Each structure stands twice: as structure tokens, then as C-alpha cells.
Amino acid sequence: MSDSTARAHSPGTSRSTSATIPPNILRSLAGVVADGYGVDLQPELTGVGLHEAVMSSAALRVSYRQGSAVIRRAVELTGDAHLGLRVGAAQHLTAWGLLGFALMAAATLRDAIETGVRFQNLSGAMVGWRAGAQDAGYVLRAELPDPALDPAVGVFLAEEAFGSVVTLTRLSSGAEFAPQSVEFTFPAPRDTRPFTELFRCPVRFAADENRLVFPAAWARRPMPGRDPVTYAAVLELLEGQMVSRRDQQDLLEVLEISIAQSLPNVPSFVEQARRHASSERTLRRRLAECGTTYEAVVDGVRRERVEQLLRRPELTMRDIARQAGFSDVRALRRAVHRWHGVAPLQLRAREERLDG
């Protein structure tokens, strides 16, 4: 089998602190856990810098690190092992903005799938999508952004990914849709009924990859809302958004690398503007267009560095504070508590258990 459409920019190739992902999953997640479990996720969102006013902004972008932290806490707070399925089933096309309209206006379901894969970086996807034809039908694959991802977050993302695909296909193409088969890489849960109830097809666990097979007849099926003129017009707008997004991601990655290479000293904002031949006002505006600030970028890089250093048992808290650019151990403790809700030693112990 050869993939007819590949990822435009793999999430695995970008630094996990870059805030470049539309927060569609987090918004849907917050609504599901509030309505279904009475859990308010805003404290968790605020804890990673996503304050209530910020979450309502259409320009907001989040990082994989922010998204993973909120997802991990949501699974813990609800105790729902199938939370990803429920969030996927709550998705709707209009939450994807222009991309949602492009999918509805595509000629066939296969065209819609390939359009979604082509512009996946605008959809808020937190997995990497690949699609292609094979003898059994049309296959959609979902790849996790990081092999070392927290297992609970990985399960959530895989469930949400295929849950949303099936839900959106039924909304746009026909409520009777069912995949030919669905496969997940994680082990089978004790109760598999939520999977068979949602997908209405054979579901396999502990597979080599996460994949969903569309029956060939469904892949060829015309979309009810197909409109070639609208489709072409929306694609032109999406291409413009992709160029803008690449520029934003490039800026964030360059800043993050600059900060990471300078630690424990953090370059001032004035110095960063000078390095990038930009005025402070222009650099501040460009970061605002990315939905972030220089302080938030610095915080993300420091967080990543601290988490790396905590995995080295020979380092003391004083060593870690100094190498990550904190004034003292107390400042380190405050930052780790803000990021994770625990003390540095507790976080180190938790990481050791996960590594073991």
C-alpha cells in the first residue's frame, strides 16, 4: 500500500512547547467533563496558562505539552477510561472552522478525508494522520506525536481521533456509516462495549498501529454537501492559513532553541528582537498572533529543561534550579507546583515509576 496523502508537517517534528495547535479538543473536553461529570477543568487550564478569557479567543493556539497536561488531569479527575471516545463523539464539523466547510463541500468522502489529512495542522489534531487506499478499502492511520507520551494521554488521543472521525463522517455523509474495522495499539480494556457501540464494527487491540478502514463503497460515496466552487474557494483560504501557521511555528521554534541554548541565562526580550532583526513592537505582535507571549515561551522551555534534569538522579534540586535558570530552589518549587501540582521530588519519583 502507498499513502496517497501524507502529513504536511508532522507533530513529532516540532518542539512540544510550541503553541501552534487550535484547541478544539480541549474545548470539547472541557464541555464533556463539565456536562457529564460536573468537573470544572478551568483550574487545570489556568494552570498551564490557558485562562478563561484566553480560551474563548478564536486566535488561541496551544502546545502539545499544555494539551497533554490538561488531558492527563481530566482522565484522573473523571476516572473515565474511555473519556477519549466520549470527547470524539462530541465533535462537530463547525468547530473546525474553514476546514469543516471544506470537508462538507468535497466531492466524495475520500476527497474529504484527504483534505482533512492535507490540512490537519489547522484542525486541532494532536495525532499525525496518514491515509491511503489498499485492497480492503481506504485506510486512515493515526500516529501519536511522541512514543514516550504518557500512556493515559496516548489512549485518549487515539480514542478521540477515531471517535471524532466516525462521528463527523456520520454527521456529514450518513448516520448509518460504520468502518470496516478499527485497530488500536493499546491493550484491550476490561470493557470493550463502548468501542463496539460507537464504531459498530470489529475492534482490535494491541495492534501494530492505530488505523481505521473505510469500506471502499463509502470512500467513493458522494458528499451530500458537495460544491466544487465553494470547495475551491475554501481551499485557497486554507492554503493561506497554512503559510501563516508555518511562519508562526518557525518563529516559536527559533525562539525556543535560542532560549534553550542560552540557559541558565535567559535572553531578554530586547535581545531577542535584536537577534531577529525586529522591533520589540513587531516581535510582540507576532507572538500575539501565535496566541502566546515571550514569557510563556520561556516558561515552556524551562519546564521542558526541568523535566529532563529531574530524570537525572545524580542532580540535586539546587543543581536543577541553577541549570534551568531559577534564582533559587524555592523558585523552582513554585514553578514545578504551578506546572504539575506537586513538589519537584514528588515529580521525580513519579517519573521514575513511569520509567520503571
Automatic annotation (TrEMBL):
<keyword id="KW-0805">Transcription regulation</keyword>
<feature type="domain" description="HTH araC/xylS-type">
    <location>
        <begin position="249"/>
        <end position="350"/>
    </location>
</feature>
<dbReference type="InterPro" id="IPR018060">
    <property type="entry name" value="HTH_AraC"/>
</dbReference>
<dbReference type="GO" id="GO:0000976">
    <property type="term" value="F:transcription cis-regulatory region binding"/>
</dbReference>
<dbReference type="InterPro" id="IPR009057">
    <property type="entry name" value="Homeodomain-like_sf"/>
</dbReference>
<keyword id="KW-0804">Transcription</keyword>
<dbReference type="Pfam" id="PF12625">
    <property type="entry name" value="Arabinose_bd"/>
</dbReference>
<feature type="region of interest" description="Disordered">
    <location>
        <begin position="1"/>
        <end position="21"/>
    </location>
</feature>
<dbReference type="GO" id="GO:0005829">
    <property type="term" value="C:cytosol"/>
</dbReference>
<dbReference type="InterPro" id="IPR032687">
    <property type="entry name" value="AraC-type_N"/>
</dbReference>
<keyword id="KW-0238">DNA-binding</keyword>
<dbReference type="Pfam" id="PF12833">
    <property type="entry name" value="HTH_18"/>
</dbReference>
<dbReference type="GO" id="GO:0003700">
    <property type="term" value="F:DNA-binding transcription factor activity"/>
</dbReference>
<protein>
    <submittedName>
        <fullName>AraC family transcriptional regulator ligand-binding domain-containing protein</fullName>
    </submittedName>
</protein>
